[in-house]
Each structure stands twice: as C-alpha cells, then as structure tokens.
Amino acid sequence: MFTVLFLSLSFSAVSQTERLKKIRVEYSGFVDSDSLRGPGVSVFTRDNTQQVHFTHEGINLWCDQAVYYEKEDFIEAYSNVVMIQGDTINMTAKYAEYSGKTQLAFASGDVVLTEPKSVLTTDTLHFDRVKQQAYYQSKGKVVRDTSGTITSQIGRYYMNSKKYQFVQDVVLVNPEYTLNTDHLDFYTETGHAYLYGPTTIVGDSNTIYAERGFYDTNNDTGYFVKNSKINYENRVFEGDSMYFDRKISFASATNNITVTDTINNSIARGHYAEIWRAKDSVFITKRALAITVQEKDSIYMHSDILMVTGKPEHRITRAYYNAKIFKSDLSGKADSIHADHKSGLTQLINLERFSSTEAFTIKRRPILWNLENQMTGDTIHLISNPKTEQLDSLVVFDNAFLISKDTLDAGYNQIKGQRLIGLFKDNDLYNVDIIKNAEVINYSRDDDQELIGINKSKSGKINLKIEEEYKIITLIDQVDGEIWPESEFPENARKLRGFDWREEERPKSVADLFSDDPPLELPVIKGLDDYIPQEDFFDDALLQRVEDAKPKDARKDEEQKASRTIPKAAIKKEDSSKVKTLQKPQKKDN
C-alpha cells in the first residue's frame, strides 16, 4: 500500500475557498516509478485479486492501470475504468483522467454514465465535480426506461437538479412516438421535457409540430405554444396554445384555432376547441365558424357552439344557440342547425325551451333568405347534392311563410300555408309549392311594371314559378280570392296573419354572422419561458481553476495535464477576454 502525502491548495469555487486533500491510493497492486515521464510519476497496475483503487473527496476510481503525477495530483486511468460518486453516479470507460486540484474528470472510449433514472452513453465526456455537471459534444445517447432513448450532438447533465440539456439534432425515440427538436431540457426524476425550437412528435396516428412546448413523458401529455399544430391524418388542428393527451387521444386548444378536414374540404375556427380522435369528435366555441369550402362559393356556419362528429365518410355538423349560415346567394338563421354532409341534408331547427322573452322562441322561427325571398317555418330542411355541392330543394314544415318585396316597393308579396316545398336550379329558387291552407297576397304588374292590382286569395295549394323578372302564381283548389285596385285595398289587409319581415337580421357577409355576439375577450396565454441558451461548460470559473492548478515551477512550454482536454477554442476565448480587460482605453484626440 502506497499513500500519497496531503497537499493544501487554495482555489476559488462557488464563492468560497476549500482545502482539498490529495488523491489517495486505496489499493495499488504493482507500483513502478516512471522516470521517463518525469519526477514523481508512478505507474500502478492491478494484480490478480482486484483493480487499482483511488479515492478523492467522495469519489472512487478503479482501473486496471493508472499513471499518477504527484506534482499535479493527476491520474491517467486505463482499461475497465470505473468512477463512482456517492450512491448515485456511476461512470465506466476505457480511459479516464482526473485532477485532484481542479476536480475535473475526462473519460473516453465507450463512456457510460449511470444515475438512478437514466443511462448516458457517449464517446467522450467531461465531468466537473465542483459544478456537478457532465458534458459531451461528440454525440450521446440517454436511455430512460419509461421515456425511451434520447440522442443529441451536444448534451449536459446537471446532477443537482437531475436535468439533462440536449442541443443539436435531438431525437427522443419512444415505442409510441419519435420526437425531433433543436433543444430539449429533460428532468430524469419527473420525466418532464421542455422543447425549444422547431419540434415534431410523430406517432402512429398523429404528428405534432410546435416551436415551444412541454411534454410529460411519464403520462404522455403535452402542452405546446408558438405555431403549434397536430395532424390527425384527416384533420389538422392548430391553435396558439394546445394541450395533448396521447393515452385518451384527446387534444384541446385556446385562441386562434383552426381545424382543417383534409378529406371533406372543410374548416372550423374558433377560440376554444376540443378534439376526441377516437370518437371522431370536434367541439368548438368562442366565435365558432364552420366553413364548407367549395370551388365557387363556400358556405359559412356560425353559432355559440359547433360540434363536428362522425367518420370522414359521414361527417355531421351541429351548430346550436344562435346558429347562422351564409352563402353569397343563401343565408339563414335558427336556434340550431344540423348538417349531414353525406346526405346533403341541413336542418334549421327551433327548440321550444326558452321563455317568451328569448329571441329564439317559436315566434322567431328558423329563417332562410334566397336572393330577395324570405322563408320561415317551424323547421326548415335544406337539401343539396353532396357531389356537385349544388342546392337541390328545401322543405318548410308547419307555418310556412314566403315573403318578398314588391319590385317597386309598393308592399310585400306573401304566400303562407302549412308546408312549403321549393326547388333550386343553379342555386336559385325557381319553383315553390305551398300545400294546405294556402294564402297569397301578390302585387300583379304588367310588362311595363305598371301595377294591375293586388291579389289576395285562399287556396288548397299554390304553385309559384320564378322566372327571372316574372313570378307565375297558380292557385289550385281555390277557395276564394280577387284582385283589388291598390286604392281600394285596405292597408290593414295587406299583411297576412303571422307576417314578420326580418331583413335587418339577414347576414349579408361573413362578418355579419358575428353581429349578435358579445365582445370577445381572449385569455392571455403566458406560455413557457424563453429558451435560455446553454451556458459555457468551460466558463471563466472553470478556466481559472485550471490556471490556479499550474505548478509554480512549471515552464511555459510545459504541458499542463488538467487543461489538455479542454477545447482550444475555450482557452483562446478566455485569453482574449483577459486581453480586453487589461487594455486601457485610449484617449481621443481633441
């Protein structure tokens, strides 16, 4: 057994001065002096019973052979190197160096650093015991049982906070997904990952993109901000702030949300949304807007709440509470709207659940506007061709009422009855049948638009044909009626019972769909803190420790072993900063 003498060395670290003991040899095996390497150099070689063993300030080092430099208190360890700190850090390598003066270690060749929650493997590794940090810049891999495998070009492990910081070409591979990013802070105790820079998470059925985010690798939940997007194969989900739960296939988003249905060519927007992928369900509120994109004329639907459900081949959109639709030649309004995209049936429905003071009681029935025609009834069905996206027909059930203004504003043309059936051609209403208990008031004009008289009649059925400027009314099973001169037709008889002209409610643009909405107040999203660039591992304090560790009698050209593995760029940076500090400011000429 050979014992190295103690040496007192003062140096600055973590704002206090410590007195370090010299490296101690616990088991030496065979010991030889190596005069060729210089004075005070010893070579330790293991014997058949065990490896050479050193200790220093709570660290144990084993190897098959070691070269110890007494003057610098420095070890070169070869073959089957094992370094253990306390009961948490275990490092193995083919080769290692350790300085008792600086407490810096360097390892190379199949380096494996093990802590309770993860295993790091790399080719070269720097270990600073003062800062309790390990650092690699030659690509490394971290394996954690519950999280998968993380690789990066540059990485650092902060032992006190149990945190890895990965930089450049970061890839996390999990059985359920693969994550790629520029910067990743990973906490081994919690499995929490903080993502910075363009990031993609690719799973079997979805792809997530964000430029800043958080992911809980233990629970498979995430929170993403800044250009965040989730692609669900047939839907793309975007928003300012997004939450994701992989286990239940759920995602929610807040502020400036867009959900794009890539199969059915539709878009939904709002400021709060939820997607349940397993149920093929989308829920949107706060200025919710659904857009069915068509080549010439898209259809817009707005309500307090929008729900889109069903498989891609059979989507159903439900809009309820103050629902409205808009198209350049058609608009409508109802308490709720139900649209079946497979059959092309859109239902405008009124729910009799409000008090009489509410705007959408039975009095304010569902309503459609087509060109200059207003249609109301208890329920309205609008049928379109799902393939051509052209309007085909409509049915107004119970209390059907059709109103249009006279061409010269003399009054209102009106037809009412129990039911209305309308037919469309090129999205224009051209034929209307009013069935059962039909009544009509019509301002009849000649070819010169001179008023002939006002027709008020009752009939079992009325047919109305709309041909450009002409309207042909046919009374079937007429009960009674006659044409009155305008001067003789009483003012109080010019409107049928139930007349309700609602032109002021008609949406004439997409913006009009939101005219009844309360002011929008969006929550402020704090998000995640800005990325803090990785500080220099070889910082001023470390380089100063190395400088202080130089033997007093060392020659300028003599190699300092504690600094030989430090990148030259870091040393040059330190030298240049010192030069700048020493330079005196020059006086300017007057």
UniProtKB/TrEMBL annotation:
Question: Gene3D superfamilies from the xrefs?
Answer: Lipopolysaccharide (LPS) transport protein A like domain
Q: Region (Disordered) spans which residues?
A: 549-590
- Pfam families tied to this protein: OstA_2
**Where, if anywhere, are coiled coils annotated?**
none
Q: Which InterPro entries match?
A: OstA-like_N (IPR005653)
| Start and end residues of each Organic solvent tolerance-like N-terminal domain | 49-182
Q: Where is the composition biased (Basic and acidic residues)?
A: 549-562
Domain of life from the UniProt record = Bacteria
Q: What is this protein called?
A: Organic solvent tolerance-like N-terminal domain-containing protein
- Provide the species name: Gelidibacter maritimus
Q: What lineage does UniProt assign to this protein's organism? A: Bacteria, Pseudomonadati, Bacteroidota, Flavobacteriia, Flavobacteriales
